[in-house]
Amino acid sequence: MSELERHFEATIAADHRIEPRDWVPEGYRKTMVRQIAQHAHSEIIGMQPEGNWITRAPSLRRKAILLAKVQDEAGHGLYLYSAAETLGADRGELTEMLISGRQKYSSIFNYPTLTFADVGVIGWLVDGAAICNQVPLCRSSYGPYARAMIRICKEESFHQRQGYELLLTLMRGTQAQRDMVQDAVNRWWWPSLMMFGPPDDASPNTAQSMAWKIKRHTNDELRQRFVDMSVPQAEKLGVTLPDPLLKWNAERNHYDFGPIDWDELKRVISGDGPCNKERIANRRRAHEDGEWVREAALAHAAKRADGNRAGKATVA
Ligand code: BYC
Predict the structure, then answer these.
(1) 204 CA: nearest ligand 1 atom
(2) Does the pLDDT value for residue 52 go beyond 60?
């Protein structure tokens, strides 16, 4: 083992953070870029299902809340692309990989948002799952990622509360509103469980990512934590989670739950979910429409750099 490898291993073993200028094995760099880029793409694509409801929010208050939430997601994408850049990735290339289908984003954003209750359920379940998955990432071994996660998690918990509060309001409304919430819960429950990724015995990356302390828990551990957290919240809300096998297991001290349709997850991840094509087409259009902004920003930066050089030359 080289001196550099020994230093890397010792940093991980001591639970210290890896920082951008530290030497890392190529596999660590690749895994980190993959995970951070997929995460960034998920935040940006994740703006679409809810963004769809901004113009149709039922009140000014709901509209302002939703606008703020969707803007937060854009911000999360930006912190994450910046974290990926500290590993030598190029943001433009990452975007190309997303819109050409070479890099993934979370399966959850390929499902449609059919009613305003979906906005509440996304906040409660999707952001709830995101928090469960991301709080341990605040202790991830890569410093810039772990630090970005701290702020992201704070904002996600606001998102989760706004969703739950929206649902509490709907549940105090008419029978039709309660039915709308139940219907949204029925559609989002299983896809939310799939967000945690394939089961541990079919997760190719987990063992190495745990050894490098990129991940602190396995996919199944976090999924179980999410189920345990959600059941009492569903009871309080007065909705039924669509799983007849969901049952408290006193021996395990956890809820048992029914089998997940892993073929559905595979289909959705490989591009064949209900909204994959629409999401990517929208992202591609936004990227193309934004070309003049990127060009203008680059021209402005070049002009300022020239100005700075000229200024320095005069001083010299
Ligand atoms: N969807 O070996 P595995 C958010 C991929 S943002 C799509 O277990 P790993 C939010 C996986 O990437 C939500 N792909 O992988 C935003 C891997 O790909 P490769 C996103 C999935 O990395 C806005 C392959 O399948 N959160 O919450 O050890 C509004 C094998 O899986 C999925 C993050 O990205 C999936 N569900 O574990 C509201 C968090 N699951 O190797 C909310 C950070 C797996 O074939 N990421 N894959 O390219 C992680 O924690 C981990 O990457 C995962 C997967 C737990 C997701």
Answers:
(1) 2
(2) yes
Q: Which residues line ligand 1 (CB under 6 A)?
A: 34-35, 38-39, 42-43, 46, 73, 104, 106-107, 126-127, 130, 133, 194-198, 203-206, 209, 215, 219, 269
* pLDDT attached to residue 311: 72
- pLDDT number for residue 310: 76
SS3 254: strand
Q: How confident is the model at residue 97 (pLDDT cuts 50, 70, 90)?
A: very high
Helices marked H in the chain: 3-13, 26-45, 47-51, 60-85, 91-99, 116-121, 127-134, 143-171, 175-194, 206-211, 219-237, 262-267, 276-289, 291-315
Residue corresponding to tokens 């692309």: 81
Domain residue ranges of the chain, discontinuous segments joined by +: 3-273
Q: How far does the centroid of ligand 1 lie from the alpha carbon of residue 219, in Å?
A: 9
- For a mutational test of ligand 1's pocket, the pick from 140, 194, 205, i.e. the residue with the most ligand atoms closer than 8 A to its C-beta, is 205
CATH superfamily of 3-273: Ferritin, core subunit, four-helix bundle (1.20.1260.10)
Query: If you measure from the C-alpha of residue 93 to the centroid of ligand 1, how many angstroms do you get, rounded to a whole number?
Result: 19
Distances (CA, A) of 252 to 21, 217, 233: 44, 18, 20
Is residue 21 helix, strand or coil?
coil
Q: Say if pTM beats, i.e. exceeds, 0.85.
A: yes
Neighbour-count burial of 108, counting CB atoms closer than 10 A to its CB (0-12 exposed, 13-18 middle, 19+ buried): buried
18: three-class secondary structure by DSSP = strand
Q: How far apart are CA 46 and CA 98, in angstroms?
A: 13
**Residue 106, token pair as written in the block:** 């979370």
Q: Is the dihedral of CA 32, 195, 140, 252 positive or negative?
A: negative
